[in-house]
Amino acid sequence: MTQIFLMLLSIIMSFIFVIIFVFIGWYLVWKVFLSRFRFVRELLMINNNNSHQSDDNNRSNTSSNQLRQKKSRQRITTTTATNS
């Protein structure tokens, strides 16, 4: 009877240790590598707007400025084409 109990206890404890080590490994991978990617944070629905919000604002500002410059170039070329 004690052998069966010890066998079940060792199986259960081994599963618990494996699960704990897997969670610790994923936590370390998250902290070291995966948390840097906005796509992964969006998949997990984590709103971490502290450090990345300014980067996103800078990107949107530069893209809107580039779009404005393209539109102004198009206007200039179309007006010069119609004048000649």
UniProtKB/TrEMBL annotation:
Highest classification ranks of the organism: Eukaryota, Metazoa, Ecdysozoa, Arthropoda, Chelicerata
Pfam name, any one: DUF4750
Positions of the UniProt region annotated as Disordered: 49-84
PANTHER family named in the record: SMALL INTEGRAL MEMBRANE PROTEIN 13
The entry's keywords: Membrane, Transmembrane, Transmembrane helix
Biased composition (Polar residues): 75-84
Residues spanning the membrane: 6-29
Protein name per Swiss-Prot or TrEMBL: Uncharacterized protein
Highest taxon in the source lineage: Eukaryota
InterPro entries: DUF4750
